[in-house]
Amino acid sequence: MGKITVFLAERPRRSREGLAELIRREPDMEVVGEAGDGEDAVRLVKQLKPDIVLMDIAMPIINGVEATKQIKASVPQTRVLVLTAYDNPEFVTAAIEAGAAGYLLKMSEEKN
Question: How many helices (H) and strands (E) does the chain have?
């Protein structure tokens, strides 16, 4: 079995770079593409057909929910995991209805 291919759809470049670095440390995973807006994410995922997309909700041009819906319509075998800071039940429902396989919250540890 080959590596799990991952596409990163995350607006801030620094966040994408951090995620990419974490994934590259995993021997069975490979980052195959990145996008900073929903439109580019949909276009590139259609071309690259990764196993997994890590999708932020707050994407410019096309938001993460709509991008998820378009990706699932054109590349149904790709699993989309929403990875976001938005802890909002309406966003969770919308993402799952759009076809997301899961909704994960970015958590940061506060330091005193």
Answer: 4, 5
Name the amino acid, one letter, at 73. Answer: A
Domain harbouring 12, CATH code: 3.40.50.2300
In a domain, 111, yes or no: no
pLDDT (tens digit, 9 = 90+) per residue, 10-60? 998 998 999 999 999 999 999 999 999 999 999 999 999 999 999 999 999
Alpha-carbon span 4 to 24, nearest angstrom:
11
Backbone angles phi, psi at 55, to 5 degrees: -115, 130
Residues 102 and 95 sit within 8 Å (Cβ to Cβ) = no
pLDDT at 72 over 90: yes
How much is the pLDDT for 108? Answer: 53
CA dist 7 and 44 (Å) reads: 9
Position 112 in a domain? no
Q: How many distinct structural domains can be found in the chain?
A: 1
- Could you give the CA distance from residue 21 to residue 76 in angstroms, rounded to a whole number? 27
Pairing of strands 102-105, 4-9: unpaired
